[in-house]
Amino acid sequence: MFSHMMVGSNDLDRSKKFYDALFSAIGGREAMVDPKGRLMYMHNGGIFMVTAPIDGQPACHANGGTIGFAMETPEQADAWHAAGVANGGTPIEEDPGVREGAGMKLYLAYLRDPDGNKLCGLHRLG
What we know:
Shape: globular
Structural class: alpha+beta
CATH superfamily: 2,3-Dihydroxybiphenyl 1,2-Dioxygenase, domain 1
Number of domains: 1
Mean pLDDT: 94
CATH topology: 2,3-Dihydroxybiphenyl 1,2-Dioxygenase, domain 1
Strand content: 25-35%
Distance between the termini: 24 Å
Order of helices and strands: EHEEEEHEEEE
Low-confidence stretches: none
CATH architecture: Roll
Helix content: 10-25%
Number of strands: 9
């Protein structure tokens, strides 16, 4: 449905530390850095990028926006969340755990990256 996701950052070194830890926690690799200095993560068929805004204005997060990352297990979601918090992220919403609604049962872990982008580690339960 989508080709990639990209978020802005005001400090790419700080973002690299944070996202390298997140992706390492779920079996991914550290960022590749393109000639423009953008961070690129490729994992499980998806591409996630971090960049300084092209227009030169400060990066800011989307109010109401969330970027969801698929997790293989609840334990992987917990490791992802812990890696994020240990590397400059902020836990938000409720503690990681099961949420039910609309006939679905999900394991969710929410945090904000150092620039305020809202992230969710999601595992669909049977």
